[in-house]
Design brief:
Two copies of one chain form a homodimer. Chain A has seven helices and two strands, in the order αααββαααα. Chain A is mainly alpha-helical. Chain A has a two-stranded antiparallel ribbon with strand order 1-2. Chain A is elongated. At the A-B interface, helix 1, helix 4, helix 5, helix 6 and helix 7 of A face helix 1, helix 4, helix 5, helix 6 and helix 7 of B. The structure holds a DNA duplex. Chains A, B: InterPro entries: Tscrpt_reg_PadR_C, Tscrpt_reg_PadR_N, WH-like_DNA-bd_sf, WH_DNA-bd_sf. Chains A, B: Pfam families: PadR, Vir_act_alpha_C.
DNA sequence: GGCGGCTATGCAACTAGTTGCACAGCGACC
DNA sequence: GGTCGCTGTGCAACTAGTTGCATAGCCGCC
């Protein structure tokens, strides 16, 4: 399970509350590891029990107290242990691929429309990634260490979305030719 | 949940036992929807309760009886309903990306080695996909209907693995330049 | 003056997925 | 003669992830 480790990486970059982490998991690190606020709160609690993080309660007025978490030495050690571990490549689960494969058992046009929807999503996502790259990494060749690594992860997102976009286009073209309306 | 639907698609192509389905999920359809034999047996049982499949018990000698499942009319209807449904794009979970992003908090060289391991895995997987394409779809432009859809899904796998391979190479080159040994 | 959205946390119940084990006979290999 | 792997099914226990709800005050909008 890598949620703990994704949280450790994120908290190491900047301490924060469960709520803030949930925001970060809606973007940035969450582009490569999805998580809801529920999961994050539960996991932070467990990590606190394990002493991988320390929580500092901060009173606020006008809103509930918040707990600012930061990585402890034990947490950093655990992260280093995990980084040395070998892991299996992520298991894939693409309902869209299953739908395409089953298209001829239902309405292929409805499936084509679903592919078009996904195409739009991937195009948007790609725009977001490219905008981040332009803004945060204007000179990629000058990068080192942490900043380099952040950029490389973003590059992975860009390459994945480009491939998905091309695939959607290929599928749409082939299905249109197979069944011209 | 698409496991039921992946099973429906697979059983519609050819009826089979839980064991056979588990084999298929180790390759072919399983390249796009991972599942263990445990999950498959449990799901088949539930699908049988829902009358989406029918089971025919076949006695064998020398080994346990087997249950050959096939899709029922209700199952086909459910599949058609699902094909018309819109779904969200798959949530991603790439521990490798998390590891790269955290590389500078541990040993970047160990992470680079992990990237190299994944690179080998993706290169192998790409070879498998290309071999299947060459063998099963020698003339892609002549395909229609079900065969076309099967090929398009395979194309998605090829494009995804190509993108991952290129990404691994980019990461390895950049990390080597950042930290030449 | 009400409604929705933001910050902030969390419980409870559910669904899905993983891991380990068990049974059982066959054939192949060493 | 024993171990390993294949076919075939399945239970039990666990871990992970999702969904719905609750609390609670603030702010801005219509």
């Amino acid at each position: 399970m890598a949620l703990e480790h994704a949280i450790l990486v994120s908290l190491d970059e900047r301490p924060g509350t469960g709520y803030e982490l949930a925001r970060r998991f809606d973007k940035s690190i969450g582009f490569f590891w999805a998580a809801t606020h529920q999961q994050i709160y539960r996991t932070l609690k467990r990590m606190d029990d394990l002493r991988w993080v320390t929580a500092e309660e901060v009173a606020q007025d006008g809103r509930p107290d918040k707990k600012v978490y930061r990585v402890s030495p034990e947490g950093r050690q655990e992260l280093q242990r995990w980084l040395r571990e070998t892991g299996e490549p992520a298991t894939v689960r693409h309902d869209l691929a299953v739908k395409i494969r089953g298209a001829s058992l239902g309405d292929p046009r409805a499936v084509a429309e679903e592919v078009a929807r996904h195409r739009r999503h991937h195009a948007e996502r790609l725009d977001v990634y490219r905008a981040i790259e332009k803004k945060d990494f204007p000179d990629p060749s000058a990068l080192h260490g942490r900043r380099l690594h952040q950029h490389l992860v973003l590059r992975g997102g860009i390459k994945a979305e480009e491939a998905l976009l091309e695939w959607c286009d290929e599928v749409l073209a082939a299905m249109r030719e197979d069944d011209p309306r």
